[in-house]
Specification:
Layout (H helix, E strand, L loop, with lengths): L25 H15 L6 E6 L5 H10 L5 E6 L6 H11 L11 H17 L3 E6 L7 H10 L11 E6 L2 H6 L5 H4 L2 E7 L4 H14 L9 H11 L3 H18 L6 H11 L10 H16 L1 H16 L3 H10 L6 H7 L5 H8 L7 E7 L2 H7 L3 E5 L6 E8 L2 E6 L2 E6 H4 L3 E10 L12 H10 L17 H13 L10 H6 L18
Parallel strand pairs: 1-4, 1-5, 2-3, 3-4
Antiparallel strand pairs: 6-11, 7-8, 7-11, 8-9, 9-10
Helix pairs in contact: 1-2, 3-4, 8-9, 9-10, 9-11, 10-11, 10-12, 12-13, 15-16
């Protein structure tokens, strides 16, 4: 919309990755050197770890690395590592085009096939590198499996080099005592910080030049304001600068200063404008005229953005709700969702105490992972620090949060800045452990639930005997869901078998109203 007004050939601040716009600051070049070290030199067979905040350019660097791969290198790139060990190994094999035909799908046979492939590549003088993006989302079992892969070696060389890329939570994850063996094998670490003020200015000018600009439309104050409001995060720089250019176009100004940048940043953050009749309404008015003049092609753009304006009037309520949250904000809500649960029992069991008849499983995953579980959950938020809130539903780009008996529809893009993937699932459970040799109705019920599981398939009937065949099936089911594969059915295994779901409150996925 504003390209012609500012004499640009294209939009300079699109968040869609475009290799022509890549800008490597000194810290990005240092990080790139660490990654290329991992690919080329092999890092002595250890791990190479790259971390950075959301939007600092980790994935962009990964793309640059892939463009500079030596000819004798095979790369397996895993973008979604929230898999159990067997699924993760299968994904690696798919990336490396390893034929798994003839295997029974077991972890051991997949690993044997991978080991054979690595030996073949080593004999041919080739390197194999595994790159895992968003590695902070991996569970303990998957990380342990990755560590075991570094044991694949000849008498002189490691067969596989592994690069872990993730958000700062990856450092916290690997600092846990149970993962110390993996942490000790990290031979190169680099944390990608946001851009400083000078780098931010160079970044903006670089993208404008690539887009055809003969001059910078931002004043010196405007450039400083972009750095202050984005805190040097490239993705936020792009979004704020793009909105500010739109504001300049709407108000017909050719120099964009601090005021317009800060107004753009407030709109990006979902805050109310400081004055009524601000630039955003002016932008909508200009765009309305543009729709009339330009026709239906622009009409689709305007319709897409119209809800943004309407949403301004309701934002204050959910923003205030998020600001009020504390560590105990969710216990009453989750207890009320389950008949028979008491708030005090829920709070105790989710904070470490053993409470009869109540189960609380602490998990880490994505929005889709929660939807797959299908129950209301308690989200752990990073802002306010230590805050918890009940997630009652999800649809499209919104999450339904419940606080003090009231539901709030909150855009996912805002929660993504506060939620790092940790959550609690709470449900009534007697805590009983079913094991090999047990008999009774509870065993028969677990077998009935097993018949509804797609993979692994259970075809052993629904008798009341916990036999060896069922124990093996349970262990495989546990491995597929990242649980300890001990063959015992406790609360966690019952949850993933959907035992609590029969009389459970459902996670709403068809939200109505606002």
């Amino acid at each position: 919309m504003y390209e012609k007004y500012f004499d640009l050939d294209e939009r300079p601040f699109s968040i869609t990755p475009n290799p022509r716009f890549v800008y490597l600051s000194q810290r990005h070049r240092d990080a790139l050197a660490h990654l290329l070290y991992g690919v080329g030199q092999g890092g002595s067979g250890g791990f190479v770890q790259l971390t950075g905040e959301v939007g600092t350019g980790k994935t962009t660097l990964c793309r640059v690395v892939l463009e500079q791969i030596p000819e004798n290198t095979r790369i397996a790139l895993i973008l979604n590592p929230m898999l159990n060990p067997a699924e993760l190994l299968r994904a690696v094999c798919v990336e490396l085009e390893i034929d798994l035909e003839g295997t029974d799908g077991s972890l051991q046979q997949i690993q044997d096939r991978l080991n054979r492939y690595l030996l073949e590549r080593h004999a041919a003088g080739e390197k194999v590198v595994l790159i895992i993006d968003e590695a902070q989302n991996m569970n303990r079992e998957a990380l342990e499996q990755i560590r075991l892969l570094t044991n694949l070696e000849t008498a002189t060389d490691k067969l596989l080099q592994i690069i872990l890329i993730g958000q700062p939570e990856l450092r916290e994850l690997l600092a846990r005592a149970e993962l110390r063996q993996l942490a000790q094998r990290i031979t190169a670490r680099y944390h990608l910080d946001p851009l400083n003020r000078d780098e931010t200015e160079h970044y903006i000018r670089h993208r404008l030049e690539v887009a055809g600009a003969e001059r910078c439309p931002f004043t010196a104050d405007g450039l400083r304001a972009i750095h202050e409001t984005s805190e040097g995060v490239p993705r936020l720089i792009n979004i704020i600068a793009d909105r500010a250019l739109m504001a300049g176009y709407a108000r017909e100004v050719d120099r964009i200063g601090r005021g317009l940048v800060r107004a753009a940043a407030r709109e990006v953050a979902g805050e109310e404008p400081e004055m009524s009749g601000g630039w955003l309404r002016g932008a909508v008015a200009v765009l309305a005229v543009a729709v009339i003049l330009a026709g239906s092609g622009v009409l689709g753009w305007a319709i897409l953005h119209e809800p943004e304006v309407e949403e301004d009037h309701s934002r204050a309520a959910w923003q205030q709700m998020l600001a009020e949250l504390g560590p105990d904000s969710a216990w009453s809500e989750i207890a009320a969702a389950w008949p028979g649960l008491e708030r005090s029992d829920v709070a105790r069991t989710c904070t470490g105490d053993d409470v009869d008849e109540v189960a609380c499983l602490n998990l880490r995953g994505s929005w889709s992972y929660i939807v797959n579980i299908g129950l209301p959950v308690v989200l752990e938020l990073s802002r306010p620090e230590g805050a918890r809130v009940l997630m009652a539903g999800m649809e499209s780009d919104n999450v339904l949060l419940r606080y003090q008996g009231q539901d709030y529809r909150v855009p996912i893009r805002h929660l993504d800045r506060r939620w790092l993937g940790d959550f609690h699932v709470v449900w009534p459970d007697d805590g009983r452990i079913l094991r090999l040799g047990d008999r009774g109705e509870d065993v028969a019920r677990m077998k009935e639930l097993a018949e509804h599981v797609d993979s692994p398939e259970w075809t052993g009937g629904t008798d009341e005997h916990y036999d060896e065949d069922f124990r093996r099936w349970v262990a495989e089911f546990q491995r597929r869901h990242g649980l300890m594969d001990d063959g015992l059915i406790g609360p966690a295994t019952r949850l993933f078998l959907k035992a609590p779901h029969a009389d459970a409150p459902s996670l709403l996925t068809h939200l109505n109203g606002g």
